[in-house]
Design brief:
Blueprint (H helix, E strand, L loop, with lengths): L1 H31 L6 H14 L4 H20 L6 H24 L10 H21 L7 H4 L1
Helix pairs in contact: 1-2, 1-3, 1-5, 3-4, 4-5
Length: about 150
């Protein structure tokens, strides 16, 4: 059950951060054209993107993290010392791979900020932090002998 709860936490962290990075990446592109964006407009865009990207972006995040964390879990079974770095790097690579695969198969980036390396790396960062959240949320709790008494 901890693994399922951890997966949900990891996906939500990845989705929220990924949507925030997409939102701010789009705003950066608008401001680079000379338009002024207020802080309130940034917040409005952020809230809009987080609450409206779930129908297309969230399923893609779920699939990317499911594949990435499953592969990492299979590798980690052989060496549990790699648990932290394994899940963080799996989330990072999984999110980047998702965007690269979309670009290769569809011929276009579905998310505009990922056309630039910074946007792509930020999506990876969202996945890495989601992997970190999964690591901690799915960790088995150890009971110390002193706690049992």
């Amino acid at each position: 059950m901890k693994v399922v709860a951890g997966f949900i936490v990891g996906v939500l962290v990845t989705y929220l951060l990924g949507a925030i990075f997409v939102s701010q990446g789009n705003i950066a592109a608008v401001t680079s054209m000379g338009f002024e964006i207020t802080f309130a407009q940034r917040i409005d865009a952020l809230i809009h993107d987080v609450t409206h990207m779930y129908d297309l972006y969230l399923p893609v995040v779920i699939v990317a993290m499911l594949v990435a964390l499953s592969v990492a879990g299979a590798i980690i079974r052989f060496n549990s010392n790699l648990r932290l770095i394994g899940y963080v790097s799996a989330g990072f690579v999984g999110m980047i791979a998702m965007h690269v695969i979309f670009k290769a198969t569809l011929g276009a980036s579905g998310i505009a900020p990922t056309r630039e390396i910074v946007g792509l790396v930020l999506q990876g960062l969202a996945g890495g932090l989601g992997g970190l959240a999964f690591h901690y949320a799915s960790q088995k709790t150890l009971t110390s002998p002193a706690a049992v008494v």
